[in-house]
Amino acid sequence: MVCLVARTGRHLQRYNSGRRLVVGCIPYRYKNGNNGGTVDELEVLVINSKKRQTMMFPKGGWDLDESVEEAACRESLEEAGVLGNVESQLGTWLFKSNSRELYHEGLMFPLLVTEQLDQWPEKSMRSREWMTVAKAREVCKQQWMNEALEIFVDRLNLVEEKDVQSIDKN
After folding, report:
1. Is residue 114 packed enough to be buried (19+ CB in 10 Å), middle (13-18) or exposed (0-12)?
2. The dihedral of CA 45, 50, 54, 60: what is its sign?
């Protein structure tokens, strides 16, 4: 069973040197529906922000009572209505809050989507859209998220190259 209520408030959130810790995911899938697809068949899921109506990847505060992977899964569920497998961290970024003169520390992870829900906690506040990596680069205006996307694509390309080299050796 999936919880359909989003967490609210910042009283349980983690901070590092006065900066709020934010965890996000790049939800992804392959067009052909299997996990053996190529980067060319890759789709990523973006959502709209609640305040500015810009497109971005799911992200939010990391609470004290959860691991970083649990926070990443929770944010993807609450904001985008997807479940999946969190993969290795893409990096950590410092970024400025859009609403305040504060800096946050953001950690990003790929999330291989295994299930897309019809109902999710923030469905009434957000839309979601599957798109190509090229389109996501255009619509996502947050530099740190675009940098995470590039690292993710580079990582997939390396895996793809190793797989091709392995096949060539056989």
Report:
1. exposed
2. negative
Report pLDDT digits (tens) over 11-52: 688 898 888 999 999 999 998 665 555 656 899 999 998 877
Integer Cα distance of 108 and 88 in angstroms? 9
The pTM assigned to this predicted structure is 0.83
96 touches 102 (CB < 8 A): yes
DSSP β-ladder status, 59-61 and 82-86: unpaired
b or e along 139-163 (b: 16 or more beta carbons within 10 Å of the residue's beta carbon)?
ebebebbbebbebbbeebeeeeeee
Tokens of 27: 């939800």
Q: Which amino acid would we find at residue 150?
A: E
